[in-house]
Amino acid sequence: MLITLEDIKSQLRLEADYSEEDQYLALIGKAAESRMSEYLNRNIYVEGTTIPPTDPDGMIIPASLRLALLLLVTHFYENRSAVSEVEMVELPMAFTWLARPHRIYPQ
Fold first, then answer.
1. SS3 call for 24
2. Residue 58, exposed/middle/buried by CB under 10 A (0-12, 13-18, 19+)?
3. Which residues does the chain have with pLDDT short of 50?
4. What is the per-residue pLDDT across 9-29, written as a single tens digit (0 to 9) for each?
5. What are the helix (H) ranges across 1-107?
6. Which of 22, 51, 85, 103 could hold 58 in an S-S bridge, CB 3.0 to 4.6 Å?
């Protein structure tokens, strides 16, 4: 994973030993990573990984994308339903602001 369960818990201000939602937290972490890769149209690799020569658009995750992932996880965690009595908000602008410079647009 590009972000660890510990990163996610820290971002959400959950105690490190809180484990009741670990499966859910791992799920939204994986979903955020998948969505990020789809948005960018490229594969993202953890630091220390060698990008395969068959993936010319692959990239090592920079700090800006780590933060964007954590913001996306926070959004998923705090908005667990697509239907609500309160006004639903679109994904925070900060995610797009952080991720867009790394996006590859299909030709």
1. helix
2. middle
3. none
4. 999 999 999 999 999 999 999
5. 5-11, 22-40, 63-78, 93-99
6. 51
Q: Give the start-to-end residue ranges of the domains of the chain.
A: 5-102
Q: What values do phi and psi take at 4, rounded to 5?
A: -90, 165
Greatest C-alpha distance within the chain: 49
State the DSSP H helix or E strand holding residue 41, giving kind and residue range, or none if neither: none
Q: Which residues pair with 54 in a beta bridge?
A: none
pLDDT for the residue 106? 81
Write down the pLDDT at residue 87: 61
**CATH assignment of 5-102?**
1.10.3230.30
